[in-house]
UniProtKB/TrEMBL annotation, chain A:
Protein name: Putative ABC transport system ATP-binding protein
Gene Ontology cellular component annotations, sorted alphabetically: membrane protein complex; plasma membrane
GO molecular function annotation: ATP binding; ATP hydrolysis activity; transmembrane transporter activity
InterPro entries: AAA+_ATPase, ABC_transporter-like_ATP-bd, ABC_transpr_LolD-like, MacB-like_ATP-bd, P-loop_NTPase
Keywords assigned by UniProt, alphabetized: ATP-binding, Nucleotide-binding, Transport
Annotated signal peptide: none
Domain of life, source organism: Bacteria
One Pfam family it belongs to: ABC_tran
Entry annotated with the keyword Electron transport: no
Keyword Protein transport set for record: no
Domain ABC transporter: from-to ranges: 14-245
UniProtKB/TrEMBL annotation, chain B:
GO cellular component annotations of the record: plasma membrane
A GO molecular-function annotation: transmembrane transporter activity
Lineage: Bacteria, Bacillati, Actinomycetota, Actinomycetes, Pseudonocardiales
Protein keywords: Cell membrane, Membrane, Transmembrane, Transmembrane helix
Subcellular location: Cell membrane
Its membrane topology: Multi-pass membrane protein
The keyword Cell membrane is annotated on this UniProt entry: yes
MacB-like periplasmic core domain boundaries: 17-226, 487-681
UniProt-recorded name of the protein: Putative ABC transport system permease protein
Record-linked InterPro entries: ABC3_permease_C, MacB_PCD, Macrolide_Exporter_MacB
Family: Belongs to the ABC-4 integral membrane protein family.
């Protein structure tokens, strides 16, 4: 366990061990992840950073059970998700994981409210009204719940996506460049909301980003380069992240 | 631009395959029908040409002047022709009907022809044995021999002039030629002299002669004409061939025209599928087209590019469709040969017109269907290249005023045409076509209105699956409703097919009901005995026998004769048994009382009565007798002849009409149909011509005729429905491609692969049921209109909704929709989530 980067003294929410992911074969094979071992503490906001092609998105996809791995294990809680069937993996995503993607987070046919509740409906669960109200009030979109995504701004759409990720009280929320398509003001709103969900609501959030400012909202930054772990920063600031990235040669 | 189009075509081949299938099927249907028509015409042509084969001179009885009025072709005529120098051989030809006694002892009418003694003049091909040479020999057509189960050397009897069986020996079997459609009855061959002995009515109508070597047709014709005189018309073999082929001209037009109507419907449906495909493709390519516009493509070039795509697709589909059409025609010819049991040789005559028609239709339908989508493509603004959101308002809106106005015009116009047709009640055919056309115009109106209809219908239909299947069904309903125009265009093809199927089915079933009612009217009796052979009457003692049977309650024989009624003219008269009046003969009365019918009285049908009044004295006569009769009743009944008298009166007027034309029989209460049938069979066992039918059997026969016609229509219209289902699969497939990211998102959020597939299947079923349901409702309504239009006081059609058949139709739509969704659903579920999310 010595190779595993982790937050000492906190319960582990998500953990990767010796993760290997190879794209292509033979001469053209690319080791997108080359033996990554990393642990993410519960109740904390962690950012995964690295230059383009460092494997940060691949790591997140593997952690979240969206993509298969070629070697190694991924634990969410006590569950080794690399051993799960597609059906069980789908259930796990539905019941224990929340997602916020860079864009195209919402179904265009559903209203904002329907989108927020979609995951719960898929699981056949009734929403906890008080919790739902808390979240809706936090994202500040109560007036726009009956609107279709095409009637919302990009920032509003991302906040709805965040609300959907949180409403089922998942063990972990994965956010893949959640501010990548937003202007800085809207981006700040979304990041504030994610940080608040960790601080006030005790949520675990793992976010992939290439933006040092976005990363500075996190409690901890995990750095990735060429498919390997390349260091970490606790209590990051935009400047500390930027200099660390420069150090990586990005 | 041209190169960009071709590159695009290559890239989108897969997306176009399904819509090409729609065109391929349509073209195959049309070209197959045309080729089949040509093949059948060719067969009819060959058949007629066969009559003129080897004939150098043909002699007939002259109809040009009155010179030939009392002329007959006799053995003397033949002999005199044979003696003319230059005649290598001459034979008489004749034909008519003859009663052949089948192995079960029952007589049936057969068409008889004569065989020529000169081999060169023989128009039939020998299959086995020999042609009949002696008067006690008979030749059987191959199929007739097969159906009778007889071979060379076996005996068969025919009814002679005195109704006595005459035994004949089968000398051989022969084939009629390749035409198997027009000749379905029994066919036999006799020598000319045997024919004139066995059947006095059938005459010889032609002498054919072959010329000796060195004698021209014209020379020989002149010599024969000089010998025979003006009473005969003489023509050369060449002229005879020309005449004959002219008759062949109207060979098989009916069948192919009938099939072409259905081929046309298929094409309309196929064009809707094409239209929809191109609309979707243009919508999906908005960014690509906008990019083209950004880098300088003109609107005209964008338009041309889309049309060029359609042109290439239509061309390829036409080639495949034509090939499929050739196969289809060959298959149909085989099927026709198989149905009537003849070994028909399959030929697929290709004419330039078939090829041109196939390509013209395939290419034209495709290009025309793509015009509207291509126009839409030109409206893509260069800035749209920067936009990424699906389902923008542009796609969904525009179900505007223009649509409502044109729909209203079509609906009102259709209603107007129907109203016009309703006014033509006295011409059933004109009514049928006008009202039918009106309903089709209204159908078009509904199709135009489609985008406004599908939303509410979709919500309504989606409620049930949402309850049953939860989220996937809710998502499916939302997807089916997200682009009303696309959904409407997809279902429209199905609506057309199902509407027409429903219309035909409901009208046929209502017709069946009316037919059953007609049978009840015509068959007040339980059984009817008729002579199976025209002009061979039933023996009088059959009625006596039946009367003495304990299970029979009433026996009413009748006879018919052609009579002349003074003041009115030539009429068919029926002599009835007075005891049957009021029971088995019970027509609707206009005036007077039929019970007064007795010696010295007569009753008339309303349509014949004219100005004649009750109490008038009418002279009823035949060449053999006459009587003056008092008119006592006028009735109104299509199923009776125009003149009714008692049997005794008829016998005194027409003493030559012996025996009975038919005998109506009512069994005693409590006697079952089977028992009654047994009694009837026993009583008629030794009477070859007696043909017993029961009301029940007649109804069954009528129903099975209507059913087989309906089956044919279902099969023909089925192709249009199949094309429509390809359309659904196509739309769904394209939608799935378009929604790759959505599917990936749903999978990421916890939708299982099974649920994703279920969602697409439900979406497909929703579209299928929507189309089928709208079609059934429209078809039912149109059928009702048509039935109302066709009903008249004589033939009251009641609306009969065949719940079972329509249920099967809806069920088939559901199953087919599930099948249509399988491929797209598989593809959607197989897509990896990460790859799906990355899709632009």
């Amino acid at each position: 366990m010595s190779a595993v980067a982790s937050d000492v003294g906190l319960r582990t929410a998500v953990q990767a061990r010796e993760l290997v992911k190879v794209y292509g074969r033979g001469d053209t094979a690319v080791r997108a992840l080359d033996g990554v071992s990393v642990a993410f503490a519960a109740g904390r906001f962690t950012a995964i950073m690295g230059p383009s092609g460092s494997g940060k998105s691949t790591l997140m996809h593997c952690l979240a059970g969206l993509d298969s791995v070629d070697n190694g294990q991924v634990y969410i809680g006590q569950t080794d998700i690399t051993k799960l069937s597609d059906r069980d993996l789908t259930r796990l995503r539905r019941d224990r994981v929340g997602f916020v993607f860079q864009s195209f987070n919402l179904l265009p046919t559903l209203t904002a409210e329907q989108n927020i509740l979609l995951g719960l409906e898929l699981a056949g669960k009734k929403p906890d009204r008080a919790w739902y109200d808390t979240i809706v009030d936090t994202i500040g979109l109560r007036q726009r719940l009956s609107h279709k995504p095409s009637e919302l701004s990009g920032g509003q759409q991302q906040r709805v996506a965040c609300a959907r990720a949180l409403v089922a009280r998942p063990e972990v929320v994965f956010a893949d460049e959640p501010t990548g398509n937003l202007d800085s003001r809207s981006g700040a709103e979304v990041l504030d909301f994610l940080r608040m969900s960790v601080r006030k609501l005790g949520q675990t959030v793992i976010m992939v980003t290439h933006d040092p400012v976005a990363a500075s909202y996190a409690d901890r930054v995990v750095l990735l380069a060429d498919g390997r772990l390349a260091g970490e920063i606790n209590q990051p600031t935009a400047d500390s992240v930027l200099s660390a990235l420069k150090h990586l040669g990005a | 631009m041209f190169r960009a189009t071709l590159a695009g075509l290559r890239a989108r081949t897969a997306r176009m395959v399904l819509s090409s299938i729609a065109i391929i099927l349509g073209v195959a249907f049309v070209s197959g029908t045309l080729i089949l028509g040509n093949a059948l015409n060719q067969q009819v042509h060959d058949e007629f040409a066969r009559q003129a084969k080897g004939v150098d001179v043909s002699v007939g009885i002259s109809h040009a002047t009155n010179a030939g009025d009392n002329t007959k072709i006799t053995q003397d005529t033949i002999d005199s022709v044979r003696k003319i120098p230059g005649v290598a051989g001459a034979d008489a030809r004749g034909g008519g009907d003859i009663a052949v006694i089948k192995p079960n002892g029952k007589a049936a009418s057969a068409f008889v022809a004569t065989i020529e003694s000169t081999p060169q003049l023989q128009e039939f091909d020998l299959v086995s044995g020999a042609f009949p040479k002696a008067d006690n020999e008979i030749g059987l057509d191959e199929r007739t021999a097969k159906s009778l189960g007889l071979g060379v050397g076996q005996k068969i009897s025919v009814l002679g002039p005195d109704d006595k069986p005459v035994p004949l020996t089968v000398s051989g079997t022969y084939s009629q030629g390749s035409n198997s459609l027009s000749l379905s009855d029994m066919q036999v061959l006799l020598t000319p002299s045997a024919l004139s002995k066995l059947d006095k009515q059938s005459g010889l109508y032609q002498i054919v002669a072959a010329a000796a070597p060195g004698v021209s047709q014209q020379e020989l014709a002149d010599r024969i004409s000089a010998q025979l005189g003006k009473a005969f018309s003489v023509q050369t073999g060449d002229a005879f061939t020309q005449d004959t082929l002219q008759h062949a001209g109207q060979g098989s037009g009916g069948l192919t025209q009938f099939m072409l109507i259905f081929a046309l419907i298929s094409l309309v449906v196929a064009s809707m599928v094409i239209y929809n495909t191109f609309t979707i493709l243009v919508a999906q390519r908005t960014r690509e087209l906008a990019l083209l516009r950004c880098i300088g493509a003109e609107r005209r070039q964008v338009f041309g590019s889309v049309l060029l795509e359609a042109f290439v697709m239509g061309l390829v589909a036409s080639v495949i469709g034509l090939a499929a059409g050739i196969g289809l025609a060959a298959l149909l010819e085989k099927a026709i040969g198989w149905i009537d049991g003849s070994a028909t040789s399959v030929s697929v005559p290709m004419t330039a017109s078939v090829v041109i028609a196939a390509f013209a239709i395939g290419v034209l339908v495709t290009v025309v269907s793509a015009v509207l989508p291509a126009l839409r493509a030109t409206k893509v603004a260069p800035l749209a290249a920067l936009r990424s959101q699906l389902d923008t308002h542009d796609d969904v809106r525009r179900t505007g005023v223009l649509r409502i106005i044109s729909a209203a015009v079509l609906l009102l116009g259709g209603a107007g045409i129907i109203g016009l047709g309703m006014g033509l009640k006295d011409q059933p055919n004109a009514t049928l076509f006008t009202v039918g056309g009106g309903t089709m115009v209204m159908l078009l109106g509904v199709i135009v209105l489609g985008p406004l209809i599908v939303g509410p219908v979709n919500k309504l239909l989606g409620a049930l699956p949402s309850l049953l299947f939860g989220v996937p069904a809710k998502l499916a309903t939302a997807n089916a409703g997200r682009n009303p125009r696309r959904t409407a265009a997809t279902t429209a093809a199905l609506v057309i097919g199902v509407t027409i199927v429903t219309m035909v089915t409901v009208v046929a079933n209502s017709g069946k009901q009316a037919a059953a009612a007609q049978v009840d009217k015509r068959f007040p009796a339980d059984f009817v005995v008729k002579s199976s052979v025209y002009d061979h009457a039933l023996p009088a003692d059959l009625a006596t026998n039946l009367r003495s049977n304990g299970k029979i309650a009433q026996v009413a024989p009748s006879q018919m004769a052609a009579v002349n009624v003074g003041q009115i003219g030539d009429e068919e008269a029926t002599g009835i048994d007075p005891s049957a009046i009021g029971t088995m003969v019970n027509p609707k009365m206009v005036s007077g009382d039929l019970h007064q019918l007795g010696p010295g009285t007569v009753a008339l049908n309303k349509q014949a009565a004219g100005t004649v009044k009750l109490g008038d004295q009418l002279v009823v006569s035949t060449p053999d007798g006459n009587k003056t009769l008092k008119l006592v009743a006028v009735y109104d009944a299509q199923q009776l002849t125009d003149v009714l008298v008692t049997l005794d009166t008829l016998t005194s007027v027409a003493p030559k009409a012996t025996g009975y034309y038919q005998i109506l029989v009512k069994v005693k209460p409590g006697v079952s149909t089977a028992d009654g049938q047994a009694v009837m069979d026993q009583a008629t066992a030794n009477i070859a011509v007696a043909d017993v039918t029961s009301a029940a059997a007649t109804k069954d026969q009528l129903n099975s005729q209507i059913d087989s016609l309906l089956g044919l229509m279902w099969a023909l219209i089925g192709l249009a429905v199949v094309i429509a289902l390809f359309g659904i699969a196509n739309t769904l497939g394209l939608s799935v491609l378009e929604r790759t990211r959505e599917s990936a998102l749903l999978r990421a959020l916890g939708l299982t692969k099974g649920q994703l597939r279920l969602m697409l299947v439900i979406e497909s079923v929703l579209m299928g049921v929507m189309g089928a349901l709208i079609g059934v409702v429209l078809g039912g309504a149109f059928a009702w209109v048509l039935i109302e239009a066709l009903s008249n006081p004589e033939l009251q059609l009641g609306l009969a909704i065949p719940g079972g058949q329509l249920g099967v139709l809806l069920l088939a739509a559901v199953i087919a929709a599930v099948l249509a969704a399988l491929m797209p659903a598989r593809r959607a579920a197989r897509m990896s989530i990460v790859a799906g999310m990355a899709e632009a």
